[in-house]
Amino acid sequence: MEREEFKRYNQIVNCISSLPKRMLSLHGRDNVTDFVLHDLSHEACFNLHKVAYFVNNPDFNRLKGVSGIAQKEVPQGLWTDIWNQTEMFTTYMRNSPFNRRVRDFEECCLECAIDDDDEIIKDVAHSIGIENPVYYSLGMKHGNQGFLVFEKNYNDTVNIDKTHILNGISLLGFCPIF
Asked: Can you name the residues that pair with 62 across neighbouring β-strands?
């Protein structure tokens, strides 16, 4: 493993391993997902330009947007640590145009039960402004299915192992959905 890859790997491991404790510090808040998604998409973790998290609930036949982060919208220098400046970050997320587009997304999703989700996810990504989408899905509690749809930072020279991304996004399954 090259030095740059090893450094990134350590950053990712540090990010993912610190999230459970941080999540517990926000117990009772309804936007824990926003905080987790922010850290996962940050340059010190997966370094994603745009990322959106959706949940498919087959019982209610709904695909619902939960949270979205667009790095270009994140104000630089506004906060030093979102986990200690929760109100400021929450206000930012409520007003973020990309997050609002994601959270406003809700569709009937009979087709989401089909194993080939590519076309559905491409349509969803296009509707919220993600170009060249990459996505991962994971099974969640209560028979739900989570989708992480993102636009990679193609300037990033380090390829991130799919296992790391799946480990990171599995933490989203522990966040409450409101």
From this structure: 57, 108
Our CA dihedral for 109, 111, 117, 121, rounded to 10 degrees, sits at: -40
Which tokens hold the place of 89?
A: 């970050």
Sign of the C-alpha dihedral computed for residues 53, 57, 58 and 61 taken in this order? negative
Among 31, 7, 24, 16, residue whose Cα is nearest residue 167: 16
Q: Which domains does the chain have, with CATH numbers?
A: 3-174 (3.30.450)
For the chain, the residue count is 178
Most confident segment among 27-31, 75-79, 110-114: 27-31
Q: What is the pLDDT of residues 52-64, one digit of tens each?
A: 999 998 888 889 9
Cα separation, 74 vs 72, whole angstroms: 6
